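Tutorial, part two.
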Amino acid sequence: MSARDIIIRPIITEKSMRDNAEGNKIYFEVAKDANKTAVALAIEEIYNIKPEKVNIVNVRPKTKRMGRYEGKTNAVRKAIVKLPEGQDISLFGDENQ
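Running the prediction step on this input gives:
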């Protein structure tokens, strides 16, 4: 499994942006079978930054309704990656624009 198969996408929410500013943490959606070691190696390969810490959370699907029809949202596996001080991953490309 390659690094791009493990890291699916960054998760950009108000909470993730606050944690990035305060604690230098970045949230990623990762593959269902990825573990902490695989995520750390993938981050190091893609961004050339060795993470200090990796936490993984399984987010269960929520039940949603549209009128009389009921369904579920997708289940997601999230990785919370803590970066060393002074290191940063730019999620929006060039920030000078």
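The longest strand covers residues 53-59. In part three we will examine how such features are distributed along the chain.
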